[in-house]
Amino acid sequence: xxxxxxxxxxxxxxxxCWGVSVIPALAHGFQTAYLDLREQPSGEIDVYWKTPPxxxxxxxxxxxxxxxxxxxxxAHSITLGAATLGWVNVPQAPVEAVIALSILFLASELxxxxxxxxxxxxxxPWLVALTFGLLHGFGFAGALAEVxxxxxxxPPALLFFNVGVEIGQLTFVLGVIGVMESLKRIPWKExxxxxxxxx
Length: 199
Fold this sequence. Notes:
single chain, about 10% strand, mainly alpha, 7 helices
């Protein structure tokens, strides 16, 4: 139950921090990457989708992210194994805080890429995937330590836990791919919004 409270607190913290971090991006025109706002003589503002929200993720295809998956998997497998077997001892609270900050970092990188700026994830994608994998491996080890492993069966339990994590990731990735492919089939050209804003 303790890990659930901690996870919910981290999700709340990430949401609040992400909301604060997006405000400057909105002030500098980040929203125009998605919306085309047209003021009418009557004072109404028509809102049109300029590009679909998901199209930016699909522009480069699925090759680059899928090629980084093995790096992330190998990295988190190394730290998960090392921490679970007791070879490395890392305090869990700082690990969880850094994982939360890493998610904020990715949100910031995505916002900057929408503004046409090149970030670390575009310059050194393998390094970012490796670093994130190492961090998340320590996070998985903390979650696994709270659940507990049978002392006599640690290696097979660790293996099956890792396989379960990979199956979960694969399921999530395939779901996202399905949604992206569905969105790409919609004719978005200039899709009018169903609402208008009065000034």
